[in-house]
Design goal:
Blueprint: H1 9-29, H2 39-50, E1 60-61, H3 62-73, H4 78-89, E2 99-102, E3 120-123, H5 125-131, E4 141-143, E5 150-152, H6 161-164, E6 167-170, E7 175-178, H7 183-195, H8 201-205, E8 218-220, H9 222-231, E9 233-239, E10 241-246, E11 252-258, H10 265-277, E12 284-289, E13 298-302, H11 308-318, E14 322-328, E15 330-333, E16 336-339, H12 342-383, H13 385-394, H14 398-409, H15 413-421, H16 429-454, H17 456-474, E17 481-483, E18 500-506, E19 510-515, E20 529-530, E21 540-547, E22 551-556, E23 560-565, E24 579-580, E25 593-599, E26 607-612, E27 616-621, E28 633-634, E29 644-650, E30 655-660, E31 664-669, E32 683-684, E33 694-700, E34 708-713, E35 717-722, E36 736-737, E37 748-754, E38 758-764, E39 768-773, E40 787-788, E41 798-805, E42 818-819
Parallel strand pairs: 8-17
Antiparallel strand pairs: 1-3, 2-3, 4-5, 6-7, 8-9, 9-14, 10-11, 11-13, 12-13, 15-16, 18-19, 18-21, 19-24, 20-39, 22-23, 22-25, 23-28, 25-42, 26-27, 26-29, 27-32, 30-31, 30-33, 31-36, 34-35, 34-37, 35-40, 38-39, 38-41
Length: about 850
């Protein structure tokens, strides 16, 4: 039986596993909170420093660096060291690379780097700032793995690398994942922390907007990022950047120019191709990778008529083009792993820099004092040169001379040795002056060094000065765009700006969306610019100005309502034909859209006014139309010989003016109408003459003397008339004269309320757009034919119009949530009435 004491296997395993865990955590996988480096990265940089492999020196073979690292400091496999070296040189992995590589260091496609015998490296210029002052006792050194050499336990870096380049690693029972950030923002936050140590994380977030990935893209900040910075853990959404490009004949291409951080580009392309083959994404005609050394470019050609936003939405939903980045800011602080907040992470760096500067200053002070002490002795010798020379000549040996000088002039041993080693050239006048200047300069440095050590304010200013220098030298503009609200799901509106657009719909059902900036204001009577190309026999029926994020309520001639967002209408150029509406909405045979409203919300206190061609009107609460099925809902009941002309948002204190094609109009109060249900038919609004029909409805809210009604005819004539000239009547009457209709003017096309500072946009059947100011049109009486607004070519007529302000902004209808349709009436050539 053995005399060795028995050991509990449970205790031994626990002890051994704990030691192994600590070794992995402290010595391999988790970065240090002070310099933001893992041991392997720190040893790579120190080995290059020992080899003088600086940024301004020639590159050295990677194998040379790897050999020194594993032979002197890091007793692990060469592949592990080389992989770490490669990553430090990849501009798509590091926000600010610490190694300047020459050769093949891999790609964002996941291509492996060349072997270490083929590649060459040297430290980047930024990496030099990690190693400055290393020879000034600024940090502690420790023995290497075999106790033959010394290596730094931490680097005296001036760069907040933990947050600058981030880190990721998996240890035993814990992991870290810190995103990269922008150096300029970090320096601003550090200066705030130095000025106000009591500042909050929210104060620091005024400078640190969010992660700044080397692969650009978008990051959704909001509460998720705030939680990560306050607690050390959180998850943020990261998206690539997608742009639309126009191809020939109105086709479009989706171009992916930026991808999420750490995403393999080739895997992304393969995933998209697989989704197309599996029919999870429809409408893609071609997929190709046109990326080169200048950047990422993945081109997805769409089939004609496909809504690009739907494809983009599918890409974000089914691929890693949108991904979650889990933040876990774990680092080694005070020799143990700690979960850091934004403030504590920056605070550890500030504490480290403060200690480095103090130790460096103390080293410089001692060195300066030692040199000043020697200079004092040299000055004594020069002032007493004859006695010194005589004493030295009389001495039998250097040791006797040193002792004699120390006794005769009260010198220290160091001063006496310096005098004995002094050259005769120091006795010249010029050399004596240089010694005095050097001594005076040293006294100034000594005073500064003492102030840094004794005065916390001076020390703080020194730290801020270093941060300013780092920022001015190395800071670069932000790459990743930060969006302030994090997403809970896929929503394409976050990538679509809520800008002003024009929605056009032709009689044959071709629809498109165009930016309002494409239409420029012109003088009255101009010929206009080409708006869109339409086929023979077709014309524009609806011409609507709105914004991308508003709801479009599309009412059909059969009284149905369908709904979609404005940005879901396919985008097209000013001259594009558009996409047929049957590709967007489920319309039945013989059904077409007659009226479009743009709304932001369906408020409970708002109402819709429905007007039919035969003069029927109905008022219904807008909230009844908030829920709309994909197949649409019934909006109003219609008689067999009637159809819906227009829908308007109203309030019950408003007045209504109905205008007819033969130039009559009636004005009555909304209070004459009681709210009815969604499928009700309504009541009579105006008594029509034979063959006459309603072409426009104008809603007046608290009209004043500056409000007028603009009436426009099919042949391009128009006039302004004060609303005071339209007397208030009861609904159901025949009305009063509104427009003098002649063969020259043509039938009345529509009417709308205007003011002097409004703009007017007119669209003709010849696909021309004219934009003029309302103040260019004279104000006239009711029974007049007006003036020519647009000069028409033979056979052409005005098809639609809208009003905008002088800056191109959309004018609201009855309230701040609703934008009116453009076409207040239309001349239907196919059906033959009103012409």
């Amino acid at each position: 039986m053995s005399d060795k004491p028995q050991v509990s296997i449970e205790k031994e395993l626990r002890k051994s596993y704990l030691e192994y865990s600590l070794s992995v955590i402290i010595g391999r996988a988790i970065p240090d909170a002070r310099d933001g480096l893992k041991p392997v990265h720190r040893r790579i940089m120190f080995a290059q420093h020992e080899l003088a492999n600086n940024y301004n020196r020639p590159h050295k073979k990677s194998a040379r660096i790897v050999g020194d690292v594993i032979g002197k400091y890091h007793p692990h496999g060469d592949s592990a060291v080389y992989d770490a070296l490669v990553r430090m040189a990849q501009d798509f992995s590091m926000r600010d690379p610490l190694v300047d590589g020459q050769g093949n260091f891999g790609s964002v496609d996941g291509d492996a780097p060349a072997a270490m015998r083929y590649t060459e490296v040297r430290m980047s210029r930024l990496a030099q700032e990690f190693l400055n002052d290393l020879d000034k006792d600024a940090v502690d050194f420790r023995p290497n793995y075999d106790n033959t050499l010394l290596e730094p336990s931490v680097l005296p870096t001036k760069v907040p690398n933990l947050l600058l380049n981030g880190s990721s690693g998996i240890a035993v029972g814990m992991a870290t994942k810190i995103p990269p950030h922008n150096l300029g923002e970090l320096c601003g936050a550090l200066q705030l922390l130095l000025d106000n140590p009591q500042c909050s994380v929210d104060d620091l977030m005024e400078f640190v907007k969010g992660p700044d990935f080397p692969t650009y893209g978008f990051v959704y900040a909001g509460k998720a990022l705030s939680d990560a910075y306050h607690t050390g853990r959180g998850t943020v959404k990261v998206r690539g950047r997608v742009e639309l490009e126009e191809r020939k004949k109105g086709a479009q291409s989706i171009v992916i120019k930026e991808i999420p951080f750490a995403l393999n580009k080739s895997s992304l392309v393969e995933k998209i191709a697989a989704l197309v083959n599996d029919r999870k994404i429809d409408g893609i005609a071609d997929l190709r990778d046109e990326s080169d050394r200048n950047g990422i470019r993945i081109v997805i050609d769409l089939k004609r008529g496909v809504i690009a936003d739907i494809v983009i939405n599918s890409l974000y939903k089914f691929t890693s083009l949108e991904t979650s980045f889990g933040i876990n800011m774990l680092a080694v602080a005070e020799n143990r792993p700690q979960l850091l907040t934004l403030k504590t992470a920056l605070g550890h760096f500030v504490d480290h820099r403060r200690e480095v500067v103090i130790r460096r200053t103390r080293f410089d002070l001692e060195k300066a004092q030692a040199r000043a002490h020697i200079l004092e002795g040299l000055q004594i010798a020069i002032d007493n040169i004859d006695a010194v020379v005589a004493l030295i000549r009389a001495s039998a040996s250097p040791e006797e001379a040193r002792l004699s000088l120390m006794r005769a002039f009260s010198l220290s041993e160091v001063q006496a040795k310096a005098i004995l080693e002094m050259r005769l050239q120091r006795l010249t006048g010029l050399q004596r002056e240089e010694l005095q200047n050097e001594y005076n300069e040293l006294l100034g440095k000594i005073e500064f060094f003492r102030s840094v050590l004794d005065n916390p304010e001076v020390l703080r200013n020194e730290l801020k000065r270093e941060l300013r220098e780092i920022r001015e030298t190395f800071a670069t503009p932000r790459r990743t765009e930060v969006l302030t609200e994090a997403l809970t799901g896929i929503d394409i509106e976050d990538l679509i700006p809520d800008e002003e657009v024009v929605i056009t719909l032709s009689r044959r059902g071709y629809m498109k969306r165009t930016n309002l900036e494409n239409y420029q204001q012109q003088k009255r009577g101009g010929k206009g610019i080409t708006a869109l190309l339409i086929s023979e026999g077709d014309y524009v029926q609806e011409f609507l100005t709105t914004t991308n994020h508003q709801y479009l309520c599309l009412f059909t001639n059969r009284g149905r309502m369908l709904q979609l967002k404005a940005h879901q209408v396919p985008d097209g150029s000013r001259t594009a034909k558009g996409v047929h509406i049957n590709n967007i909405l489920p319309l039945e045979e013989g059904e077409w859209v007659t009226t479009v409203l743009a709304l932001r919300e369906f408020a409970d206190d708002k109402y819709f006014l429905f007007v039919t061609r035969r003069g029927m009107v109905k008022c219904s609460a807008a909230s009844l139309y908030a829920r709309c099925r994909k197949t649409g809902i019934m909006a109003v009941g219609l008689r067999k010989d009637d159809e819906l002309v227009a829908v308007r948002p109203i309030r019950m204190d408003s007045h209504i003016v109905l205008a007819t094609a033969d130039g009559l109009a009636i004005r009555f109060a909304c209070g004459d109408l009681r709210p009815l249900g969604r499928v009700a038919t309504g009541v009579k609004g105006i008594a029509l003459r034979r063959k006459d029909c309603v072409v426009a409805v104008v809603v007046l809210k608290e009209p004043d003397q500056s409000t007028e009604i603009m009436s426009i005819s099919a042949n391009g004539y128009g006039k302004r008339t004060s609303v005071d000239l339209y007397r208030l009547q009861s609904r159901g009457g025949k009305g009063v004269a509104n427009f003098k209709v002649t063969a020259k003017t043509g039938k009345v096309l529509g009417a709308m309320p205007v003011r002097d500072n409004d703009g007017l946009v007119l669209l003709t059947s010849a696909s021309k757009v004219v934009r003029i100011g309302v103040d260019e049109v004279r104000s006239m009486g009711r029974a007049t034919q007006g003036v020519m607004l647009v000069r028409l070519d033979g056979g052409a007529c005005v098809m639609g119009f809208d009003r905008v302000d002088e800056g191109g902004q959309i004018l609201k209808a009855d309230d701040e949530n609703v934008s009116q349709i453009v076409v207040d009436g239309f001349t239907d050539m196919d059906r033959g009435d009103a012409n």
